[in-house]
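SAMPLE LOG
Freezer: B-3
Tube label: C17
Construct: single chain, 179 aa
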Amino acid sequence: MSRIGKLPIDIPSNVKVTITGKKILVEGPKGKLEKEFKPAAAIEINDNQIIITPGDNSRFAQAYYGTMRAIINNMVKGVVDGYSKSLELHGVGFKAAMKDNVLVLNLGYSHNIDYTIPYADIKITVTENTKIKVEGPDKHAVGQVTADIYHFYPVEPYKGKGVRIVGKYIIRKEGKKTA
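STRUCTURE (predicted):
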């Protein structure tokens, strides 16, 4: 049995949750999120709490309902508080700018990289030309956009140049030594 799956999810007063079959809709001050789940677990609302129970005793159902609970909990937190990740650009001439719905990155290549934001509810802000902040109610979408930007120029271990995710540890390597 999942220890996380057993825990109920409290619904704040400013959040509206609608369940239709295996589809759940969560609306709050930061936006609305919708997700459809497999029929391996049951979702119900009792006394302002969301309770998830496994549909049967199969190994998949036992594992899936804990995952389902974590996703729904992230949806509720996302529409109330939102999620954000920060990135920093390190390198000579590395800079970023926003033009409408497109993030323009200058990362030392012969051309600029134009990254169109793939999700409607994601907001990207650029400060000091080198600090990028990705915000939104969907935890998965925020992480995916951050990963996409990071992969344009991952940090190289010798000089430390590249796109860094704030809080992620970078292993630095020592260069060649002369005899």
